[in-house]
């Protein structure tokens, strides 16, 4: 099993505000869709609700919640990180948020696909620090800044050396 986390964050590690992205960056949204299509995605309930429901064209949508009565069309509902991992023990999974879910899975992750945006944003959700003694930057590809994508940003791939 391989665990990849995917997120976009501002310079101050912000990933969200009021359960929404605090920026508009269509290139990052296209990257997210490209990287997660066909994959098993794992997320928290708030993240699922921010999408408006299960993501289409994913092999599986797994939602972690504390609410034992929670149900969602097109989703597998679980109550812990361990339960989510036990669903697909021999498969690769992608962790797509939010903050609490990233913190739960960081110790287990092998790779982080992180869009780093060169701006600070007001937020209430933050991506956890990647300890430099545990993670190395494998690749950094600058994104194109234009009128639709007004912030400088880069698609970064971090790996945990084994």
TrEMBL record:
It holds the Pfam family DHFR_1. It catalyses: (6S)-5,6,7,8-tetrahydrofolate + NADP(+) = 7,8-dihydrofolate + NADPH + H(+). Residues 2-160 form the DHFR domain. It is an enzyme of class 1 (oxidoreductase). GO terms for biological process: dihydrofolate metabolic process; folic acid metabolic process; one-carbon metabolic process; tetrahydrofolate biosynthetic process. SUPFAM superfamilies: Dihydrofolate reductase-like. GO terms for cellular component: cytosol. Its EC number is 1.5.1.3. Key enzyme in folate metabolism. Catalyzes an essential reaction for de novo glycine and purine synthesis, and for DNA precursor synthesis. This is Dihydrofolate reductase.
